[in-house]
Amino acid sequence: MNTLDQPGSDVTDPLHVVVMGVSGCGKSTVASAVARQLQLDMTDGDDLHLSESVAKMRSGVALTDADRWPWLDRIGDYLAQATPNLKGRIVACSALKRVYRDRIRARAGKVVFIFLDGDAELIRQRMALRTGHYMPPELLDSQLRTLELPAPDETDILTLHIATSIDALVAQAVTGLRQQALKNPT
C-alpha cells in the first residue's frame, strides 16, 4: 500500500515535490528514496540544466538568475506533467531563493518543498567525498550566501535537518508529505 493511501485518506491529487537545499546536502539521494517509496516519477534538477550552465559550474563560475530562469521553468513544467500510474513527481533542485520557489510554484501549481538544512562544515565534508559531480566544493560558499531560508508564510515547506541518517530523513519526508497532503487537499 502506498504511504499516501492510508484508510480514510481522500488524497487523490498527484504530488508535486521539490527536495531543496544547497549542493551536497543529499537532495538527489533523498528524492530518489522518497520517489521509490511513494511511487513518484523522479528527476534530478541537474539533468534539466542547459549544457552551457553545466560548463559554467564545472569551471567554478556560479550561475546568475538569468541562467536559472529557463531551468526553473523546465522544473515547474516537469512537475506539472501528468503521471499515469504514479502518484506524482519529485525533483531534486536547489531552489535557494524564494523567487525561485515562487517561479516553480507558478508553473507547477501546488508544490511541497522538502528543505534539507544542515551545517556548512558537514556539507563541505560530504562534497569532498563525492566523485563525478560537476559542482565543485568551492561553489558551496556562493550557494550558502544565495540561500534564503524559508519564510514563515511558506507553509508548503518541510524543513529536515541532515545530521541524521538517510533512512531517518526519508521516513520524516514521507510522513511530512502525507501530513501535508491531508492538511492541504486541493
Percent helix range: 40-55%
Output the radius of gyration: 16 Å
Name the CATH superfamily assignment.
P-loop containing nucleotide triphosphate hydrolases
Shape: globular
Number of strands: 5
Largest sheet: 5 strands, parallel
Distance between the termini: 22 Å
Write the element-wise H/E pattern from the N-terminal end onward: EHEHHEHEHHEH
What is the CATH C level class, in words?
Alpha Beta
Q: Strand pairing plus helix content: what structural class?
A: alpha/beta
Give the count of helical stretches: 7
Which keywords apply here?
alpha/beta, Rossmann fold
Provide structural commentary.
By secondary structure, this protein is α/β, with parallel strands linked by helices. It has one domain: Rossmann fold (3-Layer(aba) Sandwich). Helix content is 44%, strand content 14%. The protein contains 7 helices and 5 strands. It has a 5-stranded parallel sheet, with helices on both faces. Helix 1 packs across helix 7. The longest helix has 18 residues. The chain is globular and about 45 Å long. About 3% of the residues have low confidence.
